[in-house]
Amino acid sequence: MELGRLEYLQALVTEFQVTDSPEAKEQVLANLANFAYDPKNYEYLRQLQVLDLFLDMLTEDNETLVEFAIGGLCNLCLDKTNKEYILEARGVEPIINCLSSPNEETVVSAVTTLMFLTTPQSRHQTTALPVVECMLRFSLSANRRLSNLATLFLEDYCSPPQVEEARNLSKHTAVGIPLPKD
Amino acid sequence: MAAGGGDPGAPYRHHAQLGACESRAKYREGRRPRAVKVYTINLESRYLLIQGVPALGVMKELVEQFALYGAIEEYHALDEYPAEQFTEVYLLKFQKLHCARVAKKKMDERSFFGSLLHVCYAPEFETVQETREKLQDRRKYIAKATNQRDCFVLKKVEGPKTTVSKTSEHDCPWSTSRSHASSNWDPSCFTSSHGVSHNTGHQCGNRNQSLLTSPHYDNNCAETSAYFGQNPSLTPSVQPGGCTPPASLMQQRMVPTYSGIDRFMPRTTHLQERKRKREEGNRFSLLGTSADNTEVIIGPQLPGIPKVDMDDESLNTSATLIRNKLKEVADSVSTISVEKPESGSAKPLVKQRRRI
């Protein structure tokens, strides 16, 4: 059964790489992202370089692909090996960029992924000033899911001085990361 | 698409039922037609929104049906939620996320009093604390499933004490990091279960993350417990660190993991083991349980080749029986051949030989 699973995942990755159909790409990526929820698959996903695939998809124009890719990363980034891999592959930057997406699921997944990727070594990236400032704005959102997660981010992953600094910054500048449309 | 902003109780995009995907390649078609959707921990929730409930006053039956999958903490109708004519919308709050997950899987698209239910998660009803707990549980689950104890937990763990103590039990690294005799042990980490979670904000994170690099911990919990059972020499290696609390705590932890190795030893090995221990009883009684562990270190003993006594008469029972039978037949044949000498000696014998 283990061999069957690897082969199946391999077939998905292969289809993703060879297909021209955007629908098929979306379906396969969603499939892989859902597989990324189960730790049993992590070894196979690493072997098949699916983590790189997810990271690459974050910069696609197709919003659906971005949404599924960041969802996949959110699902698997709590595992220590996966976390280290994503951090070493400089994955934090494209994930932060997802905070600007108009897609609600993308933004929500990005916030959680940043939380999960926060370690003593990576916190200077994941809780950088622009990010904290963004979270401040999100915490005031009418979207309860977003405001809850942003509040958690500020309370549990940022120090009070960081939050204070971001608060002062947002008072003086109008530049900010926009809230998702839906 | 429905608006996502606004208070909980308004229709959100993630409540909408997407159409099933029709164009899936055959090899990846599931048993049921499904929409193209990704589920993350953000989307999942203990709160379930049930749409399409017929307005027949069947709330009690609805709750009873869902309660089959787990305890329900709260439930009520959502009168403001837009609903199709003659249907109502209900909100259910399960005690456990995995119960909600199963209930959703089983009850979505299920017929209920003649109407098809649409069940979806409703995470927008969570409080900040509930979301926090949900993410923490996910963290613990991954740590346990991948056998990694990440000491870097949240700075503030608010909420009831029971939650805190559960968190600390799982997030404390000393259960998995004993293979490295580090001099950086912080005894304060072991003073109390509450102490662990509160002290391990950043300091422990630095200290203990370096301890989690042993390749032994890539496997699942069962294999790890086997590892512990086979290598209790780890126990003395950590003691030079000077912390008695870890050793005593480790003794406590050793007991369940040792019983783990028993499960994976074949029964015949157990029997052989016990027999050997009985034969060498004096030596074991002097050395105590550590000797037992030492014996186990060598590895499960394969059952010895059963020694057969070749002189035992019972081995020849079948052969003797057959010989006697042949003798009997031969005697009876010779008697017949004496009576009928003209029919020849060979042929009657051939005739009377029966194939068994």
TrEMBL record, chain A:
Transmembrane segments: none
Entry superkingdom: Eukaryota
Renumbered ranges of ARM repeats: 49-91
SMART domains linked: ARM
InterPro entries named among the record's database cross-references: ARM-like (IPR011989), ARM-type_fold (IPR016024), Armadillo (IPR000225), ARMC7 (IPR042462)
PANTHER family recorded: ARMADILLO REPEAT-CONTAINING PROTEIN 7
Protein's name in the database: ARMC7 protein
Name of the gene encoding the protein in the UniProt record: Armc7
From TrEMBL, chain B:
Superkingdom of origin organism: Eukaryota
GO CC term, one of those recorded: spliceosomal complex
Region named Disordered: 336-356
Keywords in alphabetical order: mRNA processing, mRNA splicing, RNA-binding, Spliceosome
Keyword RNA-binding in record: yes
Keyword Transferase among record annotations: no
GO BP terms in the entry: mRNA processing; RNA splicing
One example GO MF annotation: RNA binding
Role description: As a component of the minor spliceosome, involved in the splicing of U12-type introns in pre-mRNAs.
Family recorded in the similarity comment: Belongs to the RBM48 family.
Name of the featured protein: RNA-binding protein 48
UniProt source species: Oxyruncus cristatus
